Amino acid sequence: MDNYQTMFHSSSSSSSSSTIPQSSHLSLLNYMVMNSHAQDHQYLTVDNTHSQGNNTATFEGNNSIIIDMKNETKPRKKKGDKGSKKARYAFETRSQVDILDDGYRWRKYGQKAVKNNKFPRSYYRCTHQGCNVKKQVQRLSKDEEIVVTTYEGMHSHPIQTSTDNFEHILKQMRIYSSF
DNA sequence: CGAGTTTGACCTGCGC
DNA sequence: GCGCAGGTCAAACTCG
Question: Mind telling me which SUPFAM superfamilies this protein's record contains (predicted)?
Answer without folding.
Answer: WRKY DNA-binding domain (SSF118290)
